[in-house]
Amino acid sequence: MPRRHHAPHRYCTPVGENCPAARTADFSGLAPNSLTLALPVSFVGRRELRRPMATDCRLKAMEADRYAVTTLRSWRATDAGALALDLEGATALVGIAEDGSVRLRAQAGAELPPAPEPALGREPWCPVRAEPRARDDGGVRIAHEGPRGQARVEIEREPFTIRVLERAGGVVAVLDELGFADGGGARIGYEVRPAERFFGFGEKRGGLDKRGEHLRMRNRDPERDPRDPRYLSIPFFLSLISGEAVHRARGIMLEAFGPSRFDVAAERADRVRLETEADGIDVTIFPGPTPASVLRRFTARVGRQPVPPLWALGHHQSRWSYASEAEVRALAEEIRARRIPTDAIHLDIDYMDGYRVFSWHPKRFPDPKRLASELAEDGFRVVTIIDPGVKVDGSWSVYRDGCEREVFCRRDDGEPFSLRVWPGESALPDFNREEVRSWWGEQHRALVEAGVAGIWNDMNEPAGWAREIRVGRNFVPIARQNVSRLVQSDPGDPGLRVPHERVRNLYGYQECRATRGFLERARPGRRPFLLTRSGYTGIQRFAAVWTGDNKSRWSHLRESIPMLLNLSLSGVAFCGADIGGFAFSCTPELYARWIQLGALYPFARTHSMWLARRQEPWRFGARVEAIARAALELRMRLLPYLYGLFCEAEETGAPVWRPLFFEFPDDPASAAVEDQLMLGPSLLVAPVVERGAREREVYLPPGRWMAWHDDAQYVGPRRVRVAAPLERLPLFARAGSIVPMQSPILHVGEAPQEPCILQVIPGADGAATLLEDDGESTAYRSGALARTPLRLWHRAGGRLRLELGRRQGSYRIPQRPLRVLVRACPPPVGVYLNGARLEACDGLPGYAARGGRLHLRFVDGGHGYSLEVDPAP
Ligand code: GLC
Fold this sequence. Notes:
With 873 residues, the protein is of the alpha+beta class. 17% of the residues lie in helices and 32% in strands. Alpha-D-glucopyranose binds next to loops.
């Protein structure tokens, strides 16, 4: 058996209950985690400090009324096409984009802060040229109507109000309560409907609908105060008004690199308020009418999740830590011997030498290149963790080089800044500067050359602590990090310095931007894989997101559903939670239920903490091992479908995991379902998340449904109680679906025996597109993506017609056997391929009717085919 490596003071989370000594440590009297920014009046560093942010990160309610803007003084059209507004004591810019979204930027004083797009590496925002028209009340109106969207904006003079309307007059949102606080923060509000629900907000705990909550955006490790905020901030949300006859979705994005706060109809059930702490307010309203159209517009603006390399969609096996070559090899061998489908092995911090990033431990990992190539032969990719903190160690070349190039952040008095992380005192690169990003990227070269396939960015909120004490082999952090004196370059103007707090939420985003940029340069034409814990709006452009340190508890399994759904609705299509839970020990039953659901997470990784019971799928006995194998086999069988969903996410912004209302926006009951999800448009997943449960109630939205395991038919809307023995995850397919699948494989390098199986769920008409390519290059962006349009007609009497259109795109697929599997299909009297009657035989073409299913096989050359099935009368 592999032996776990032990080393002093390695094994402890920064603070928290997972560390036995931490539970008894007395934290009273220590600096609380409130980071009041008391900046010095004069700054003696090399660069000038931009306007200080005299705010408190605890986000006291602002006294905005004192500054409430009540009057529009004058307006003018800008050259770019927006409206510049001169308000009492403030300045604003309002414009409509081509897609009908409306943006307001406002700040106290006579000047707006610079546009945030260059800081984010995002496309500039372009308003349309809308001719302003004066209103009789002294206000102004602009309107736009185009093929991609339309909007009308009415600005009322007093009280100052911005009405965003559809051209036909329907109200999208009425923004009011604009106010400004002393330190540059601002507030805005708008009225909401009683039946309106609120989703998104990035990675949050709790339920799916955030109505009634106060939410905060400030990236941090939530270990000691688990609720809010968390590692990653995406100040965007989507609301849905669903009623009998009306449905409307709208999205609101706040751009704020520093802390912000949302009152989601908590103080008043009919109002939502957004507050920032610096740089005024910058909000965009995305019109619907459907959740899908909101997401399409929002992700077009902030960037979409690029299609990951196919291997990254397989199962990842991780642990803190697989700490030696021998241990990793033994793990790989065992995974294959036990036939557990897995594509990647993650190396946590112990692969390093004294936790120096970009190092390998010379004894435990003497030859990483050989290890990676051996693993690659067996179909495994290696992913290594990289934390941003660089050990302060004059003998460590990365640190020395970083100092020489001045890449590290400093304090406001110009002195070097450091915080304590795994390696001890660590310096933080200032990723807001382009040259620092490229320096950081370059540090990965040796990893890439050693054959590391993916990078895992952790602790990048940034997380760390101020002091610790030794407790035997471990250590216990005894004081929270204090970043109040930390300054960084202004991301939009690197010649200036700003308090870190003001741009804090960008730290992880900029690190991932650096890493991805390098991986793209180092392996041109190949898709990188990057995983991150922290991030900001648009992080999906660079990385997949996992939701950090969860626990092996039923409640954490349960809450991974709304958490990942809301993250998905915030633009992050490639997301997952640690399967089995990170901290504490998982029970066999919990692991079984977790892997069943986790195998269908967009990102599927098992990970656990060093203190916890080992969590490889076979650690829980033969029964659970078989359950895990079956769950991961299902993922591999569904890989063609999953892959298509990722292609769709990049093309349209529709997430892979979708709440029911995303597919059924007209159905009010769907909006209330928090413990089920749609995996794409076709599969409804109703996981078991209660200990001991062997059945559960499932809500089936309107339409016909089929139980995946036994083809039982249901007509929604209805609630059904279904059996869920430990071996079964309740899964339903929507009638009219065509689900592309393949026969099971252990990793993506293995050729499936049957590469293309189209599972057809009769009972309704339907359409889908089969999307295929090489799974690793970026050639799909220039047309090398094979598209096969699929159409299904379900006719009276159960007659069925399936059309596979001619394959499009320049990606070549050699001739191959293709199987159409029609579920819930009684033995037919006639089966036709391109009009010719087929024989019931094993040949190609041929068909077989078995167990209430029809299997029809033929050679697919991509030329377009029609299939017809006549049922017995
Ligand atoms: C953090 C990460 C966790 C990792 C650990 C050690 O707690 O969230 O996933 O295992 O650090 O690197």
